Amino acid sequence: MYGASVDEVGEIKSDKERLAAFEARIAKGEKIEPGDWMPDGYRQQLIRMISQHAHSEVVGMLPEGAWITRAPNLRRKLILLAKVQDEAGHGQYLYHAAETLGAGREEMLDALLYGKAKYASVFNYPSLNWADNAAIGYLVDGAAILNQTMLARCSYGPYSRAMVRICAEESFHFQQGKEMVIQYSQGTPLQRKMIQDAINRWWWPSMMMFGPHDSESTNSAVLIRWGVKTRTNDELRNTFVNQIVPELHAMGLSVPDPELRYDKGTGEWVHGPIDWDEFWRVIRGDGPCNHERMTARRQAHENGAWVREALQAYAQKHG
Amino acid sequence: METQWPCFYVFEKPRQEAAFIHAGSVHAPDLELALLIARDVFARRPSRTAMWIAPESAIFSRTKEQLATGEHPGEGDPEEERDFQVFAKTSQKGVCVHQGTVRAREPWIALAAAQQAFPKVRALVWWLIPDDSLLKSDPDQAALLYGSSPGKEYRHERNYPVRTMMREIMARNQQTKKDGHDG
Which residues in B42-75 are b (16+ Cβ under 10 Å) and which e? Predict the structure, then answer.
């Protein structure tokens, strides 16, 4: 695209003036588009967030993907196939959105595959039986949707548009998980035991998906000022708790948090302390499945090298 | 091997009677492969009736602010007259939408022609794209590549009656509580 930058047509502005104009645009609710002036910090934060988000979608295929061949019936198999394919598609939307900011595809993938980039810590936990797919849809996708609905309103146009597409598909993921959790909870004693076990194992990793407490979250303030986020980690986490806890209780299931309590004054559920040591350990690579996930991703990437080479060779031949 | 492929803008036509809209961008080795990749990225789930692909470098873009500051056209050699596809973004939260076609010798003249041809369009941004730089999807392939998948109803949230299921559970819980009190 060739558009004259404002500098070429108007007087040269100082960085301070440009930043003020940029922040005024955000305050008015305008969307920032790829060619627009933006502070370096905004670009870097977005590349970090969007690429981490893309990595999470791609790695997120692995815990459930393993169950496609073991689905209990054809309907569940079709649903799971479509869901895992959606996650791959979400990764694609997001990598393309990150590329509009000048991030290179190979650079982003290398950062994931060779250990520098982060992705959602929740995908480093194992899925041990079919009920885990129910808990993942209900808790993990339920938590993800809250974050994604917020990001659909974010100030960067391509990210917000990718999120609108993702949210539409993600709500199917949540509903199919919730349907399974309900069915398990109303089933035989063994089925109720299975789903309670899965909820017990996925509850805390899902709670950690919202990220560190606001007091510990170094990026939050600037992300909120620049309209990337509109709600804090703790606000989103509390919304999640207040949505899920009453539903689980109604289903006759419990939440594995001995300090969980209902505050009559505020009318809200208040959760107990989160094990942040575990969170940081898993983020830094020492979770139950980090090694397995990255080995699977590296292998998939290497196995796909011939496709990328063939595309390039074809383009050169016909270009 | 060059690893970062050039950028292509993707336009999609959601319904037969709808205008083309900007869907996003993809990186690909060339136009033809960009169209294939765009199909997988943007029409994997939602059905579309057509797609257009433009190299990013072929899009001539001017914002309302740039036009207001009085930028003047450069003095290039006039080229052969050709068709330009005109796109405009008219709301901050919207995307660029196809307005129609104008014929001109260069992008600047095409822009002036677009403003005249579409006087009611209050554009925040104009995009002018030479028609011969676009790759357009093959209409014969549209149904196959971009059509909907009516058999895959399970991919939509409306097919999961979880609200009704929860209501039934709540009603049953109420009844059990009441029976407990009565007993």
Answer: bbbbeebbbbbbbbbebbbbbbeebeeeeeeeee
CA distance B4 to A303: 19
Strands B60-63, B125-130: pairing kind: antiparallel
What is the value of pTM for the model shown?
A: 0.92
Q: Could you read off the pLDDT of A30-60 as tens digits, one per residue?
A: 999 998 899 999 999 999 999 999 999 999 9
- DSSP-derived 3-state class of residue B128: strand
Q: Dihedral sign for Cα A75, A78, A80, A86, please.
A: negative
Q: What is the pLDDT of residues A208-241, one digit of tens each?
A: 999 999 999 888 889 999 999 999 999 999 999 9
Q: What angle do CA A125, A128, A132 make, to 5 degrees?
A: 80
pLDDT digit string, tens, across residues A73-114: 999 999 999 999 999 999 999 999 999 999 999 899 999 998
Q: Tell me the nearest-neighbour CA distance from A156 into chain B, angstroms.
A: 10
Q: How many angstroms away from the CA of A274 is the closest CA of chain B?
A: 29
In 3D, which of A255, A252, A27 has the Cα closest to residue B173? A252
Q: What is the largest CA-CA distance in chain B?
A: 95
Give B99→chain A minimum CA distance, Å: 18
β-strand pairing of B97-104 with B125-130: unpaired
- Determine, for residues A30 and B25 on separate chains, whether the beta-carbon distance falls below 8 Å: no
Pick A182's closest partner by Cβ from B9, B152, B166.
B166
Report chain B residues whose CB lies below 8 A from the CB of A86. Answer: 45, 155
Residue of A nearest to B124 (CA): A30
User: Which residues of chain A make contact with B176, given a CB cutoff of 8 A?
Assistant: none
Among A80, A108, A156, A175, which would you mutate to test the B interface (most chain B Cβ atoms within 10 Å of its Cβ)? A175
Q: How far apart are the first and last CA of chain B?
A: 79
Are B9 and A1 an interchain contact pair (Cβ–Cβ within 8 Å)? yes
